[in-house]
Write a structure and sequence with these properties.
The structure holds 3 protein chains of 3 kinds. Chain A is α/β, with parallel strands linked by helices. Helices cover about 20% and strands about 20% of the residues of chain A. Chain A has 7 helices and 13 strands. A 4-stranded antiparallel β-sheet of chain B has the order 3-4-5-6, with no helix packed on it. A two-stranded antiparallel sheet of chain B has the order 1-2. The chains are: A alpha/beta, B mainly beta, C alpha+beta. At the A-C interface, helix 2 of A face helix 1, strand 4 and helix 9 of C.
Chain lengths: ~325, ~90, ~425
């Protein structure tokens, strides 16, 4: 773990519990609490996947479940999202949809023909004469798709569960925590869900914490009328507040009387050439890597931001 | 899942109900023309707007009337046939 | 490699032309106004121009082209229907589809995958056999096949359905069954119609249709009034709105139909798999997503909302057929509007109102009929006389008690 930083305040990893895993044939070590991506970063792995069309090298980008690249297979499961799936002892991972391996992907040669393959080029090619299309199609089908299916995957249906609450709060950041407390103090039965392993949202990794927000997480955990479910995604919100909650083990069908969406922001990438190369990432991804997983995401940094909260210089000065 | 209010059993999930089509008056089979009869058999009020419909609550076997706006799925009220307002 | 791609690559000043123009205002008068910029409406405009030289045509679309059923279906094309009228009509559509990429100069990814309608009971197998016989009689490639054949063509399938359903005992196999890029069909027809002078107006809503002495005289829109004597309604799920404007009654009722796609997977499923008993049809797109659709929602509704019931039930049924999919994630679900007829055949052609033409009743079978509907409606509008292929589908069949029962050929039990 050559890029692991000294212990950070509030880090989500448990340094005492090391996890051995394999990535593309390399034996590596992570810690309990790591996601696949944070463990790879901690080991100095820069290329974690390949892009869909030109098979360009890709690194971590969001660390928040929004990465398009960084999909893995462990031989049994496929399209595992590296920025959302927890690292497990003995995992044997490969990036999906590479030809060769993630470092040397033979299909990256398509990048040289990029000029011939503008957006939507396939609508303009491959259909003359008619009898040639099936041949082209079989080629296209060979390179299409992401992970391969595992036709031996066990036929287990996950259990279903039901739940009811007065107020569902989606998102365990400062505003979700405050909303949950306010609703619970007013007498409502509250269910607070967050897709991350722990509550806190930007409190856990942001540069600034308002004085009022300190202790929010503890107060929520201590409140009798608030049930907390972490590692739980809201997969869909349907008519009359019928909600699908999905966690690692089950689908819970929830009926809420009211819903508060406190889902925060999805940081958008800046648009410039080669903004997808490994090493370029969202400021919030760098912050998450440092604060949650104690991983050093860079040695030198250029920041492009409009938010004081994305202050990577501060991060750099205070963390190592 | 949508909630529908049965006039006898109160609010229940829509899966417990069966839709019975719009409330329509049957013309007299003996006196109506073929055209009138065909209109009754086949044609429907499929337009958006509020209409009166038959619904059936399966577990309890209650047939009742719902006034529903079919463009937004808003149920304005439900009542038993015996409680309808007769003009 | 087509020339325009090479031009694109090697010339710095070569810009891609837009697919079609965006006219900024409506003309005062059109020869034909087509309401609805889906595949059907755009195809009708295209064939009016190509086959009949009528180019003073406006296609009015209240949203963007292909935003309705055209972009919401599961993109399956087949002609293995139950009635002679139906099979002949859909076969004519398949014939046009096969060459449509060349006709429209746009790759529609029309891909013949082979279409299996699985039977889980002898009763269902009997209907498949009936369809196969009707099809063979009309020269359509369909046959009844047994479990061994199915397993050979689709090795991943679990014929026992995990014991959750009656086992698959045979199927109707229709080799020409195909999938296509549905949006591209709308784009291709739009470009072709536009190049020949038709106007495509997106973001224009029709608010009323003017009828005097039993004949159409014009169309009111939110962008003003246009004079015309011929109006085609090609709005599928919104037909009941339009029919009210001209005072027509019809059997149409609107139900939502839902579908979903999974995350992209390396292609493994070549065939199109349909199970009527499981209310499921599945294919794999050229991007690698599994596309799956179900039967209609159980009550009338003009809303494109999704339900969890659908996603949950569909996931279960997909696993009955392909038990290893338990770890595959659903990426999106959506709904479209289906204008259902009691006999599961469309309503096409002339109406009691002079100059008002219907292309409706597209329920769950509209996409596959796109080319032939456009072709036949263009003929009907241009000549004033119903094209032979669509004569059985006139609205008058209901008042004449002369339906065309296609329910047995719907992909799933409704």
């Amino acid at each position: 773990m050559i890029r692991r930083l000294p212990s950070q305040p509030g880090e989500w990893i448990d340094r005492g519990r090391e996890i051995a895993f394999e990535f593309e044939g390399r034996l590596l070590t992570g810690a309990h609490g790591d996601t696949i991506n944070s463990a790879l970063c901690a080991n100095g792995v820069r290329v974690i996947g390949r892009s869909f069309k030109y098979h360009r090298p890709r690194g971590v980008y969001s660390m928040a479940g929004h990465d398009a690249a960084g999909l893995f297979t462990d031989g049994e499961r496929t399209n595992m999202r590296g920025d959302a799936v927890a690292l497990v002892d003995g995992m044997c991972l490969r990036a999906v949809n590479t030809f060769g391996n993630v470092e040397r992907d033979r299909m990256s040669i398509t990048g040289r023909f990029a000029k011939l393959m503008p957006v939507g080029f396939y609508y303009k090619a491959f259909f003359r004469p008619r009898w040639m299309f099936p041949w082209f199609e079989s080629l296209i089908r060979r390179i299409a798709g992401q992970g391969a299916i595992n036709s031996a995957f066990p036929a287990t249906k996950s259990p279903k569960d039901y739940a009811w609450c007065d107020v569902l709060v989606v998102g365990g950041g400062p505003s979700g925590l405050s909303a949950a407390l306010a609703a619970a103090d007013a007498g409502a039965g509250v269910l607070l869900v967050d897709e991350n392993a722990r509550l806190g949202g930007s409190l856990a990794w942001g540069a600034t914490v308002r004085k009022d927000d300190e202790g929010l997480v503890d107060r929520v955990h201590a409140h009798d009328s608030i049930e907390v479910r972490c590692g739980t995604s809201v997969a869909g919100v349907y008519t009359d507040h019928w909600v699908a909650l999905v966690d690692a083990d089950r689908l819970t069908k929830l009926r809420a009387k009211a819903i508060v969406f406190a889902t925060g922001a999805i940081e958008q990438p800046a648009v410039f050439q080669n903004n997808d190369l490994p090493g370029v990432m969202l400021a919030s991804a760098a912050q998450r890597l440092v604060r949650l997983y104690s991983v050093k995401p860079f040695d030198r940094v250029v920041t492009l931001t409009v938010l004081e909260d994305h202050n990577l210089i501060w991060l750099y000065e205070t963390s190592w | 899942m949508k909630i529908l209010t049965c006039p006898v059993n109160g609010p229940r999930p829509i899966q417990e109900f069966t839709y019975g089509g719009e409330v329509r008056d049957m013309p007299c089979p003996d006196t109506s023309t073929d055209t009138q009869w065909a209109d009754y058999i086949f044609n429907r009020t499929g337009e958006p707007g509020v209409r009166r419909e038959w619904w059936h609550h399966g577990p309890s076997g209650v047939w009742f009337v719902a006034e529903r706006d079919i463009i937004g799925d808003n149920v304005l009220k439900t009542y038993l046939w015996s409680a309808r307002e007769t003009p | 490699m087509p020339l325009n791609l090479l031009k694109f690559a090697f010339r710095s000043d070569y810009g891609e032309p837009r697919m079609f123009r965006r006219p900024d205002r409506l003309r005062e008068e059109y020869d034909v106004v087509i309401i609805g910029g889906g595949g059907h409406g755009l195809a009708a405009a295209y064939y009016l121009a190509v086959e009949h030289g009528i180019t003073n045509v406006a296609v009015l679309e209240k949203s963007y082209i292909g935003s309705g059923g055209t972009g919401r279906n599961t993109a399956i094309v087949r002609s293995n229907y139950l009635t002679e009228e139906g099979a002949r009509f859909y076969q004519a559509s398949v014939d046009l589809f096969r060459d449509l990429s060349r006709t429209l100069d746009l790759n529609l990814f029309y891909s013949e995958r082979g279409h299996f309608t699985m039977a889980h009971s002898l009763a269902s197998l009997r209907t498949q056999r009936w369809r196969a016989e009707v099809n063979k009689h009309l020269g359509i490639d369909s046959q009844e096949v047994g479990p061994d054949f199915i397993k050979e063509k689709i090795p991943e399938i679990d014929l026992t359905c995990g014991g959750h359903q009656p086992p698959i005992c045979g199927a109707l196999y229709h080799p020409p069954g195909a999938i296509a890029r549905h949006d591209a069909v709308a784009w291709g027809y739009a470009r072709g119609a536009d190049q020949r002078g038709c106007e495509i107006h997106q973001g224009v809503s029709v608010t009323d249709i003017e009828v005097r002495d039993g004949a159409v005289t014009g169309v009111h829109t939110d962008k003003g009034f246009v004079k015309t004597t011929r109006v085609l309604s090609a709005v599928a799920g919104w037909t009941t709105h339009i029919q009210k404007m001209v005072g027509l009654r019809s059997p149409l009722v609107i139900h939502p139909l839902q579908a979903l796609v999974t995350e992209p997977l390396k292609p493994w499923l070549n065939a199109i798999v349909v199970s009527a008993s499981l209310h499921t049809y599945i294919s794999q797109s050229s991007r690698g997503e599994l596309v799956a659709g179900a039967s209609l929602d159980p009550y009338e509704l003009i809303s494109m909302r999704s339900t969890l019931d659908f996603a949950e039930t569909m996931a279960g049924h997909m696993m009955d057929l392909f038990p290893f999919l338990g770890d595959i994630k659903i990426m999106r679900q959506w709904a479209g509007l289906c204008d259902m007829t009691p006999d599961f055949s469309p309503i096409m052609g002339t109406t009691a109102i002079d100059g008002f033409f219907l292309d409706a009743g597209w329920g769950t079978w509209g996409f596959k009929a796109t080319p032939i509907s456009g072709y036949a409606m263009a003929h009907t509008i241009a000549t004033g006389d119903n094209h032979d292929l669509i004569r059985p589908f006139n609205l008058s069949r209901f008042s004449e008690f002369d339906q065309v029962g296609e329910k047995g050929a719907a992909s799933v039990g409704h």
